[in-house]
């Protein structure tokens, strides 16, 4: 079984690859990897990949020729696409000319609707599911409007991208002006209510119109958090695996509404990020159209979304497509992650 994983220089592809290679019940798996960065660690990781390929960036005119050649010459049957810009491109091509292997992808219209946090939030603005949010003009001409509505402190970040790009708690106009100066490459900032509660995630796997699997977790601390003024780097160092129906129900309501408003089919794999207010009510802050870096922690805890994705693509007759909200065996499971190591999953009561 030949499976292609894209973007293998990042932590999310490593997480997915390890879930398939070392934790899956699937037989005879051979993984192939691609990345556009010649310094990507995954390109040289022979423990995971049979072969790896340095490929053009997704916006390069030769991108698709190279991928079609790789897929044909290596008899690739399935692919898991990880970088979000590649998910968007593969989704577009799947609807216009078809793909040379089987891939689980969202509708292209849906990828465009949720890639921008500003667009996603605007689609849910008439609900109680998202925090009050505003696009901040670079000349700050609408700052008074934002502060009159949100007050200080408020949260700011880039309206697109990952790894907590441009994120910071803003407590004054001076802080904001300085932050804009040192982040000139962020094209659009997004200001929202500051939510002080838990940082949550709900992973959701859809197949041909139906939700098949879901599971919830919490991000508590981040790898190399000291290098980011917000403390958020996008890579969780300590988190929890949760059995939390409120988190799931809020995420599901948001996804149902987004699919309906966009007119898209319920299909694909998503990680819905949520943040709690001071009263413990979670609000949706982001919808990732892919697996994220701590997916393998769910795998070790008993919910292998990567394996389930391949089993759906291969039309495994033994796979039960009826919905299951995964309940972890223990109520106090936590995970610990480091840059170069396999994550650890253990009971929180075991911590010193």
Describe the structure.
The strands form 3 sheets. Strands 10, 11, 12, 13, 14, 15, 16 and 17 form an 8-stranded mixed sheet that branches. The mean pLDDT is 94. The chain folds into 3 domains: 102 residues, Rossmann fold; 62 residues, Dna Ligase, domain 1 (2-Layer Sandwich); 152 residues, D-amino Acid Aminotransferase, Chain A, domain 1, CATH 3.30.470. It is 29% helix and 26% strand. A hairpin with a 2-residue loop joins strand 10 and strand 11. With 352 residues, it is an alpha/beta fold. The chain contains 10 helices and 17 strands. The radius of gyration is 20 Å and the shape is globular.
TL;DR of this structure?
By secondary structure, this protein is an alpha/beta fold.
Q: What is the average of the pLDDT values?
A: 94
CATH topology heading of the largest domain: D-amino Acid Aminotransferase, Chain A, domain 1
Q: Work out the number of β strands.
A: 17
Number of helices: 10
CATH class of the largest domain: Alpha Beta
- Estimate percent helicity: 25-40%
Structural class: alpha/beta
